[in-house]
Amino acid sequence: VQLVESGGDLVQPGGSLRLSCAGSGFAFTNYWMYWVRQAPGKGLEWVSTCNSGCSTAFYADSVKGRFTISRDNAKNRLYLQMNSLKPEDTALYYCAAIDFGSWGQGTQVTVSS
């Protein structure tokens, strides 16, 4: 199982970013996928989860209404659209296939003016 995140960047407060996660080595379509983040000096925080088609999705209260999880199973890709970014969204963002205990290397999002 391999997960590779991309799309992190430095962005101003109020800006937007779209994170991407490429999965391989497993039947991507069949599994719930997760976004998790870790802010500097803090523990892991679950961000969002969706089922195989993202017909069911859940969000942490801290991102609800601002972030949207989606996936393209034909491309084995998971996405996180992040809007109205705040400085407190600054973190290393990971995608995870929890069923396999697998995580990517993370992509850094920094929200700062």
- The helix/strand order is EEEEEEEEEEE
Distance between the termini: 37 Å
The main pleated sheet reads as: 7 strands, mixed
| Share in helix | under 10%
Total strand count, please? 11
Radius of gyration: 13 Å
Strand content: over 45%
Mean pLDDT: 96
Structure classification:
mainly beta
Question: Rough shape?
Answer: globular
Number of helices, where a helix is a run of at least 4 consecutive DSSP H or I residues: 0
Catalogue the unreliable spans: none
What does this structure look like?
Strand 5 and strand 6 (57-59) form a beta hairpin. The chain is 0% helix and 50% strand. The protein has strands spanning 2-6, 10-11, 17-24, 33-38, 44-50, 57-59, 67-72, 77-82, 91-97, 102-103, 107-111. The chain is mainly β. It is globular, with a radius of gyration of 13 Å. The mean pLDDT is 96. Strands 2, 4, 5, 6, 9, 10 and 11 form a seven-stranded mixed sheet that branches.
